[in-house]
Each structure stands twice: as C-alpha cells, then as structure tokens.
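Incident log, support desk, overnight shift.

02:14 A customer reports that sequence design results differ from what the structure should imply. Their input is reproduced verbatim below. On-call engineer (initials T.W.) acknowledged and began investigating.
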C-alpha cells in the first residue's frame, strides 16, 4: 500500500524554524506535483507551496520569502523549510502528491494521495 509519511512538526517560538519531510512508501512508478497544505481549526485546507517534477515552485503569498519547498526525486521525498515562523502559521500541515502507479491489471494510474498530517504550533 502506498503511503505518504510526514515528519518534523512540533512546537516552536515565533521567529524560529522547522523543517517538514514527507516520504513516499510503497511501490510507485513516479511522482508528479508534490505540495504542502495546511489547515487551522475552523478554517479550510489551503495550499502552502507546491513543486513540480521538474522543480518549478509556487507559494502562498503569506509564506513567500519565509518557506522553501524542495524535493529529492531519488528518495521520493518532499521537504518544507519554514523560517521566521509566526503564530498564524499554526496549523496541521498535510503532504500531497500525484502518484503514478500500476494497478493490478497492469494499467498506469495517477492518484492524488494525502499524508496523515503533522501539527505545527508557533507560540508568540
């Protein structure tokens, strides 16, 4: 079974940094776009940053200049380096990836997969 496994969340003070990681486990043929989303209590899940297979990136305005998304295609892993954290960055962060798989019939399929989420809490 293919899974996205996140790590790196925690409790930090404003101005500090955290690095999130998301690794893919299981048998896959490849990964298209990878992304990080976040969801605070009472709010919808919003895109934080995304990165294409070729390395093109996209960021939410609220994190530009502070967060950096990167990926290691050899390790099927995506990272989110978060600097100068603010209390408003507090949320559950979710990894998302477009995974290319071969199903039981031998057909190639693209599925949208989510990680379980990791809590990031920034105190003032």
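02:41 Re-run completed on a clean worker. Output:
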């Amino acid at each position: 079974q293919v899974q996205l496994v996140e790590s790196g969340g925690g409790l930090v003070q404003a101005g500090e940094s955290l690095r999130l990681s998301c690794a893919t486990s299981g048998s896959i043929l490849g990964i298209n776009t990878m992304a990080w989303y976040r969801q605070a209590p009472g709010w919808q899940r919003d895109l934080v940053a995304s990165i294409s297979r070729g390395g093109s990136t996209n960021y939410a305005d609220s994190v530009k200049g502070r967060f950096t998304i990167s990926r290691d295609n050899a390790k099927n892993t995506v990272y989110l380096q978060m600097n100068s954290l603010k209390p408003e960055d507090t949320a559950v962060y979710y990894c998302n990836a477009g995974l290319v798989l071969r199903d039981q019939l031998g057909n190639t399929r693209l599925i949208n997969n989510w990680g379980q989420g990791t809590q990031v809490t920034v105190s003032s």
